[in-house]
Amino acid sequence: MSVDAAGEEGPSTLSLSSVVKEIQGFKDKFKREDFDSPSPFADLEKAAVLQECRAFSDAKVVTESPRRCSHLITKLLHIVTQGDAMSSSEVTDVFFGVTKLFQSTDASLRRMIYFFIKEVAETCNPDDIIIVTSSLTKDMNSNEDLFRANSIRVLSRMCEEVRCCYVNRFSGLTPRCWVPSSAMSNRP
């Protein structure tokens, strides 16, 4: 809008004050929308989510409903990041349940699996992590670049001094690949 000699705004160009008013209106609108729509995970109960995660044991659910499994992992990650402490038995049960998801070949579910393992491995019992390393080393030697790159990244994050020799043995068997997705994770 433009301002003519009489000080009235016309339809041709925008004035600075009208732009500021419009931006302020958008800011207020979005601020109100934020208060109107709470987080979809706001009312999660840890016990209910842990109960739902028992579906990971069902091979049919894992292979036919990867989105459901990804959504459950997202709920678990939300619980973990919000500071809800899980007992060691709960962590172990969930950790083993997530390892059963390696049956799926869905790429987005696999990404969630790797992310979950990487985030939760620090809180797990070291004896439980050994179970996951076998699945990760299998993926490390996979022909699928996405699986290979992510498994190497997760293994390197989980690796302690004690187990480095074990992991190094398998990483030495991994073919050297310079595909961009796994190049950085596969270098000696």
First CA to last CA: what distance? 62 Å
Strand content: under 5%
Major sheet size, sense and barrel closure: 2 strands, antiparallel
Strand order of the biggest β-sheet: 1-2
Mean pLDDT: 75
Helical percentage: 55-70%
| Number of extended strands | 2
Give helix and strand order, one letter per element, not per position.
EEHHHHHHHHHH
Number of helices: 10
**Low-pLDDT sequence parts:** none
Rg from Cα: 25 Å
Shape: elongated
Write down the oligomeric state.
single chain
Structural class, by secondary structure, is mainly alpha
Notes on the protein architecture:
- By secondary structure, the chain is mainly α.
- 63% of the residues lie in helices and 2% in strands.
- It contains ten helices and two strands; from the N terminus they run ββαααααααααα.
- It has helices spanning 16-36, 46-52, 59-64, 66-81, 88-99, 107-120, 126-140, 145-158, 164-173, 180-183; strands spanning 2-3, 9-10.
- Strands 1-2 form a two-stranded antiparallel ribbon.
- A hairpin with a 5-residue loop joins strand 1 and strand 2.
- Helix 5 (88-99) runs parallel beside helix 7 and helix 6 (107-120) runs parallel beside helix 8 (145-158).
- It is elongated and about 65 Å long.
- The mean pLDDT is 75.
